[in-house]
Amino acid sequence: MRHAFTLIELTVTLCILSILSAIAIPRAGRFLDSIHVHGAVIEIESLFSTARHLAIARGAQTTVEIDTAARAIYVSAGGARLRNAKIGADHDVRLSATRSGMSYSATGMGYGAANLSVVVRRNSFADTVFVSRLGRLRH
User: Which CATH class is domain 7-138?
Assistant: First the structure.
């Protein structure tokens, strides 16, 4: 009657576990990066939608400022800051944008001559939020 494992059985088991770990750990890292980036993109889309709806509801211009150095986005109307979102700190991502901000008119249309793109990046995973001149969002 045998009550223990042989050295060969333990070695084979450890080799199989190390091979599976070498495959699974990098994929898990990329999966975590995608979760963080996706969460940040959803929050950015929410901020832009909130700014647009506030502009329509208040009947006044609303501004969205993107501070890439502080990794934050601010929504303000009439000189008062209504929302502060520290996207970088909350989701551990980096931000880059084609412009430092945009404004919405009282009709919900975006001011400015060009579209706005906000790139959210963590390690090798990235996603982009596009805001059209009309104020519409897509990613």
Answer: alpha beta
